[in-house]
Design goal:
It is a single chain. By secondary structure, the protein is of the alpha/beta class. It has one domain (2-250): Ribonuclease Z/Hydroxyacylglutathione hydrolase-like (Metallo-beta-lactamase, Chain A). Helix 5 (168-178) packs antiparallel against helix 6 and helix 8 (220-230) packs across helix 9 (238-250). The longest helix is centred in the C-terminal third of the chain and has 13 residues, at 238-250. Strands 1-2-3-4-5-6 form a six-stranded mixed β-sheet, with helices on one face. The protein is 35% helix and 25% strand. The structure holds zinc ion and fe (iii) ion (FE).
Length: 251
């Protein structure tokens, strides 16, 4: 399985999984760059997976579906244009043309119906997890997002995380406020800078566990930094997570 990042808008990635004939697309927010890429690679789109209803993730579906007959998997509880296969989490999605199979995970927080797709050592997590960050809580509660991130933390450490946005550098900037001398974080900063604008994704879950403050709300350093910022003691886990999320929002 090959995975290609198709850049869209300013900082979105549409992930394309493909062989030399067929491609599956995750979160096609914009049709034009996808159609151009499919054309240049002589590939036929065979399926679409959608993580949540935001425009920058669904905006290209109608045009792709008008040109190609293909199933569109997406959250049942959200308004997804062109969706043919509503899913809620717990299902298995088979993409026969590519011989791929994904587990659907319910990960509410960024939106209430947000889904992630896991399979073949890859996690397509939309706007739930970013490298060194996590999605804003537009619809869900801190508790929902904390639980969703716990599901992700429990995946195999070598899982490759395919986030929907390139936010890594600004996220590292914030993460360093909490853990200025975390060696893994400093290494990740060097690594991403050296890419000079090329995608910093996918990233391994193990790297995220070592660097992402939203996955590190049990770590004394992170808790102490957030407690100091807000001038109030914080319990490890959910309380620390909620504080770190609020700090990031207010920044
Ligand atoms: Zn979103
Ligand atoms: Fe988004």
């Amino acid at each position: 399985m090959k995975v290609t990042a198709i850049p869209a808008f300013r900082d979105n990635y549409v992930w394309a999984l493909h062989d030399d004939q067929s491609a599956m697309l995750v979160d096609p927010g914009e049709a034009a760059p996808i159609l151009a890429w499919l054309d240049s690679q002589h590939l036929n789109p065979v399926a679409i997976l959608v993580t949540h209803h935001h425009d920058d993730h669904v905006g290209g579906i109608r045009e792709l579906a008008a040109r190609h007959e293909l199933p569109v998997y997406g959250p049942a509880q959200e308004n997804i244009p062109g969706r043919t296969h509503p899913v809620v989490g717990g299902e298995t999605v088979d993409i026969r043309a590519l011989g791929l199979r994904f587990q659907v995970l319910a990960t509410p927080g960024h939106t209430l119906g947000h889904l992630c797709y896991v399979g073949h050592g890859a996690l397509f997590c939309g706007d739930t997890l970013f490298s060194c960050g996590c999605g804003r809580l537009f619809e869900g509660t801190p508790a929902q997002m904390h639980t969703s991130l716990a599901l992700i933390k429990a995946l195999p450490m070598d899982t490759l995380v395919y986030c929907a946005h390139e936010y890594t550098l600004e996220n590292i900037d914030f993460a360093l406020e909490l853990e200025p001398d975390n060696p893994a974080l400093l290494r990740r900063l060097e690594e991403v800078r050296a890419l000079s604008g090329k995608p910093s994704l996918p990233v391994s879950l193990s790297a995220e566990l070592a660097t992402n403050p939203f996955l590190r709300c049990e770590e004394a350093r992170v808790i102490v930094a957030a407690a100091r910022h807000f001038g109030t003691p914080l319990q490890p886990g959910l309380e620390a997570f909620a504080a770190v999320r609020r700090w990031r929002d207010e920044r």
